[in-house]
Automatic annotation (TrEMBL):
Domain named Glycosyl hydrolases family 2 sugar binding: residues: 36-180
InterPro entries the UniProt entry points to: Beta-gal/glucu_dom_sf (IPR036156), DUF4982 (IPR032311), Galactose-bd-like_sf (IPR008979), GH (IPR017853), GH2_Domain-Containing (IPR051913), Glyco_hydro2_dom5 (IPR040605), Glyco_hydro_2 (IPR006101), Glyco_hydro_2_AS (IPR023232)
UniProt-listed SUPFAM superfamilies: (Trans)glycosidases, beta-Galactosidase/glucuronidase domain, Galactose-binding domain-like
Database matches in Gene3D superfamilies: Galactose-binding domain-like (2.60.120.260), Glycosidases (3.20.20.80), Immunoglobulins (2.60.40.10)
Glycoside hydrolase family 2 immunoglobulin-like beta-sandwich domain sequence ranges: 197-297
Species assigned in the record: Neptunitalea lumnitzerae
TM spans (from-to): none
Stated family: Belongs to the glycosyl hydrolase 2 family.
Domain Glycoside hydrolase family: residue ranges: 701-803
Domain spans labelled DUF4982: 629-687
Pfam families: DUF4982, Glyco_hydro2_C5, Glyco_hydro_2, Glyco_hydro_2_C, Glyco_hydro_2_N
Alphabetical keyword list: Glycosidase, Hydrolase
Name recorded for this polypeptide: Beta-galactosidase
Domain named Glycoside hydrolase family 2 catalytic: residues: 305-487
């Protein structure tokens, strides 16, 4: 009897599993197509042929950026503004065979982004060209590919030789991922769905969903389309079903309105993600499945109250980010993007502006899952150029295609909450701006009406701003000039506002000058030359900014107190390659970041953390290695407390509190070596204690790895922070020791950096000078399932080793 019972239960389990699996069966294949490519710099028109001798071509995996591998020179055509690295023309080739079973399938190759002017051939057949380096695009290659074990060849020409074509570093090459999508002949279009949530109450959310289904079979097809909403455990919460008949060679939009009871809302603190699974059946056989992300959330901009998200007034605490990843160049890597986002999230930032172009899909996936609002931006120029060879050359022919591809790719991400059609566009100053703004906005609205359209403007006089005069923008973005924010509602009646870009403060991590003036602007008034430091550094006291900007503190104070300003995007969250204001070459990367190029926080990170974040903050700076007798301005950022007491070598230097809207406290301290300690209090209760100590001679190296294991998948990365310390474990604040790395086992070196904006050392090397006590080693899985052994050594220091396990 017991046996029978067990058998019955087992049978039941099998039936359940079987029916669940039926639903989970995947017929669509999306294959990572980044491994085993060949690359050769220079022009190789012969590479489109099936058989060429490419033995001397380099073997590599994508994503790849050849610029970052090059040598810095002020004479490189991209100029220091573009990062001072080489550009030019390069070719990629890959030989591949296709699975026999795919012979009657639709094969699509998808490029997430190629910088720039890509041209693609498969087996000698020309597929097309794509000038804009930030657009994702795809080609149906079904009719060009061969089966029966025959070799196929894909060749990609990348031409980044017309220079300068950007105001910042772009990178060169197939710098984002490539996918091979394999579907049956009736399928949901790649980027062919659209989900949004028009009505949300506590009890129910209406989810409106549309899928564009294609029929490329030779005959008409009757298809059953099932759309299921799954929760974050992939359990079905609701579903809908439709039958459609689609003629051969045609497509149809299939629409659903579904209801989710008691919806869990997506917000930046709890980014709850549902997903929508679309199943296509023909004669009861599953022939396609397509997954669309879904976050249920509502928001609006209000002329008086700013930004209201899920019914709550919410300040947008954002940062602008360019797409490069420092030492990795623009070659995207999800772990590297994640490292940066996690650090900014910890600081309390809740929003990213993708300056000034569509980001990688991975950035949006991470913003969906980590919890960031994204202002997704399309262009830095329209028809009027900013630099000689920029996108103005392509605007006329390509803007419609680029805009459409941008929206359909990104419109299902819950993180994306605004479309920006341009940054500081020149056409704002003349009447041609009216028509172009109307056209671009109309194109956006044809594909998505659920998000406002904005543009980042500089002209804040209504009669002089023609983008504003188009009447087409839903929200006005203003860059800089925060002194005028208070008056904006008088100038632009009933408008909704966001500070789309602000600050442009300058700093070098760990470098401090002691000026008398509290704030300096670059360039100085009356066109005087900028008398900077000989070593191209900028002080980190948040007292130097580009003249069009302001200090971090002044800007945030203004935005904080004005409820009608929805929020702000700081220029920038992280230093980026290129635009090395205020210095000429050898400066070659920006000084604007809250994080330096290696991802290390500058001091102002903690100002934001004290204002925006949740953690208790007490940050004291500068370091404590000065000349006896000097007077040192000592600053502290703090929160969750009402006062801070400072001690030098145990002796109190007094208690200070932030007064009014102040964002830090400070003391002038006559220097004496030893320990400077701060304690914050709420009433009589101690909240936090911190100290900086005088470091002695550098004796050793400390290695801190971002994680203890690495996946053997040829993609995973680990970031190892290298600190030079004295015999007591105190960081030596001016240490610049030359560190040599040895990495063996399951990973290779992917990059090294130290955050110093004027370093001309290569990013792809096994050595680096520390800068102000620190440098960074980035390692990347090489696919071997082996532990990684890392040794860092330097002539005068005891060396240090760590092991990262394979998992
Ligand atoms: C802004 C511009 C940014 C960057 C910044 C530097 O005007 O939008 O792209 O150039 O200035 O301060």
């Amino acid at each position: 009897m017991k046996k029978i019972k067990t058998l019955l239960v087992l049978g039941f389990i099998i039936i359940i599993t079987y029916s669940c699996n039926q639903h989970q069966e995947k017929v669509r294949i999306t294959k990572d197509f980044t491994l085993d490519w060949q690359f050769s710099l220079g022009d190789h028109p012969e590479a489109v042929r099936d058989s060429i001798n490419s033995d001397d071509w380099r073997k590599l995996n994508l994503p790849h950026d050849w610029s970052i591998e090059g040598e810095f020179s002020e004479f490189n055509p991209a100029k220091p503004e573009g990062g001072a690295l080489p550009t030019g023309i390069g070719w990629y080739r890959k030989e591949f065979t296709l699975n026999e079973a795919w012979e009657n399938k639709v094969i699509t190759i998808v490029f997430d982004g190629v910088y720039r002017n890509s041209e693609v051939w498969v087996n000698g057949n020309y597929l097309g060209k794509r000038p804009y380096g930030y657009s994702s695009f795809k080609y149906d290659i079904s009719r060009f590919v061969k089966y029966a074990g025959q070799k196929n060849v894909i060749a990609v020409k990348v031409d980044n030789s017309e220079q300068p074509n950007s105001r910042w570093y772009t990178g060169s090459g197939i710098y984002r991922n490539v996918w091979l999508s394999v579907t049956n002949k009736a399928f949901v279009n790649y980027w062919g769905t659209f989900v949004n949530t028009p009505e949300i109450t506590q009890n129910r959310a209406t989810v409106s969903f549309k899928a564009t289904v294609n029929n490329t079979f030779e005959s008409q097809k009757k298809l059953k389309i099932i759309t299921r909403i799954l929760n974050d455990k992939l359990e079905e919460v609701t579903k809908g079903e439709e039958e459609v008949v689609i003629a051969s060679g045609k497509s149809k939009d299939v629409k659903f309105s579904l209801v989710v009871d008691k919806p869990k809302l997506w917000n930046v603190d709890h980014p709850y993600l549902y997903s929508v699974e679309t199943l296509v059946y023909s004669n009861n056989k599953l022939i396609d499945n397509y997954t669309t992300p879904l976050g249920i959330r509502s928001f609006e901009f209000n002329a008086q109250k700013g930004f209201i998200f899920n019914g709550k007034s919410t300040k947008i605490k954002g940062v602008c980010l360019h797409h490069d990843l420092g030492a990795l160049g623009s070659a995207i890597n999800k772990e590297a993007i994640k490292r940066r986002l996690v650090s900014l999230k910890r600081m309390g930032a809740n929003a990213i502006r993708t300056a000034h172009n569509p980001p990688s899909p991975e950035l949006l996936q991470l913003c969906d899952s980590i919890g960031f609002f994204v202002q997704d931006e399309l262009f830095d120029v329209w028809k009027k150029k900013k630099v000689k060879e920029d996108y103005h050359n392509n605007f006329e022919e390509w803007h419609v295609q680029d805009l459409k591809d941008w929206i359909v790719r990104d419109r299902n991400h819950p993180s994306v909450f605004m479309w920006s059609i341009g940054n500081e566009i020149r056409e704002q100053f003349d009447s041609t701006g009216i028509e172009i703004t109307q056209e671009l906005t109309k194109l956006v609205k044809e594909l998505d009406t659920s998000r406002p359209v904005t543009s980042a403007l500089t002209e804040n006089e209504p009669q002089k701003n023609f983008i504003y005069q188009s009447g087409a923008l839903d929200v006005l973005g203003f860059n800089y000039k925060h002194e005028a924010y208070e008056d904006l509602p008088n100038r632009f009646k009933n408008a909704k506002f966001i500070s789309s870009e602000s600050v442009s403060g300058l700093a070098t991590r760990g470098h401090y000058d002691f000026p008398k003036d509290s704030t300096q602007f670059w360039p100085p008034a009356h066109n005087q030359p900028f008398n900077g430091n000989e070593d191209f550094t900028v002080s980190a006291y948040d007292n130097i900014a580009a003249y069009w900007g302001a200090t971090h503190e002044d800007t945030w104070k203004t935005v904080k107190k004005l409820p009608f300003i929805a929020g702000m995007f700081v220029w920038t969250g992280a230093d980026y390659l290129g635009e090395p204001i205020p210095y000429p070459y050898p400066a070659r990367s920006s000084y604007f970041g809250i994080l330096d190029l290696a991802g290390f926080p500058k001091d102002v990170y903690y100002m934001y953390q004290s204002e925006w974040g949740n953690e208790d903050v007490l940050h004291l700076f500068p370091h404590w290695n000065w000349k006896e007798g000097d007077t040192i301005p000592v600053w502290a950022y703090y929160n969750h407390a009402d006062k801070v007491e400072l001690f030098l070598n145990g002796k109190s230097l007094g208690v200070k509190s932030k007064v009014g809207d102040e964002l830090h406290v400070s003391w002038d301290v006559p220097y004496a070596a030893g320990e400077l300690k701060a304690i914050s209090y709420k009433g009589a209760t101690k909240v936090k204690e911190t100290s900086v100590k005088t470091a002695g001679l550098a004796t050793s190296i400390k290695l801190d790895a971002s994680k203890s294991t690495i996946q053997p998948n040829q993609k995973d990365m680990v970031f190892i922070e290298v600190t030079i310390q004295d015999k007591n474990g105190i960081m030596v604040p001016d240490a610049n020791n030359h560190i040599v790395f040895e990495v063996t086992g399951g990973a290779d070196i992917a990059g090294v950096d130290n955050g110093y904006q004027a370093s001309l050392e290569p990013f792809q090397a096994n050595h680096r000078n520390a800068y102000n006590g620190k440098c960074l080693l980035i390692i990347k899985s090489n696919g071997k399932e082996e532990a990684v052994h890392i040794t860092a050594s330097s002539p005068e220091l005891s060396s240090e080793s760590i092991t990262i396990k394979s998992n």
